[in-house]
Every structure is written in C-alpha cells, then in structure tokens.
Amino acid sequence: MTRVSDLEARRAVEQHRIRAMMTAQRAGERAKLKIGPEHVAWVKEEMCIGCDQCTIVCDDDAIELYDVKMRSPIIDVDINKKAKILREPCTGCGLCVLSCPTDAIVMIDR
Ligand code: SF4
Ligand code: SF4
To answer: Partners of 84 in the beta sheet?
Structure first.
C-alpha cells in the first residue's frame, strides 16, 4: 500500500522536475528577448486583458493602465483596462514580457 510519505517524496521529485523545466524555459525565453537600453517594451493592445501583472513587475514605473470601453455585450462592465508603456522611464529590462499571461508585450527597437 502507498504511504503518505511515499506520496510526499514523489511530489517533491515532481515539484523539482517542473521547477527545473520552467526555469530552463524562462531562461530560453529571456535569452531570445531584445533587452537593454536600446530597446523598449510595446503592448499589443488587442491582446491585453488588463490583468495588471506587468505593472507589478516593472520597477521603473514605466507601465500605466488606462480605461477602454468594454466591447462585450454579454458582460455587464462598462470599462476594461489596457496597459501602455511609458517610453522614457522604460529601461528595456524585459521583465514585463515574461510576466504577461497573454504574450501581449514585445520588445522593439527604441
Ligand atoms: S521592459 Fe522593464 S522597464 Fe520597460 S516596461 Fe517592461 S518591466 Fe518596465
Ligand atoms: S500583463 Fe499583459 S495582459 Fe496583463 S495588463 Fe500587462 S500587457 Fe495587459
């Protein structure tokens, strides 16, 4: 019979495996990004869901959320939020790109 301690040990192994896989994947994503002062982040508005993740990770206060009219007739909310990058304070670090769940942010040449 499987004991709780066996399950805990298996869980720890799986946790380690998943964490290592995600770390490697993020390192790969980060390596492909154009980062540095000669680059700046850009939000593809149509893909932004206004979740606010990017503003949380941006240490340079380079992202603002603004209101847009809600387009869906099936949800009773008047406005939605969208993110916009402030070019001057953006240092091109690329953190916001990695934080965005919808891949709405890309790095472009400044
Ligand atoms: S690239 Fe860095 S500094 Fe620029 S908006 Fe994203 S998190 Fe902020
Ligand atoms: S993390 Fe992505 S989806 Fe969320 S507000 Fe920022 S740009 Fe929009």
So the answer is: 64
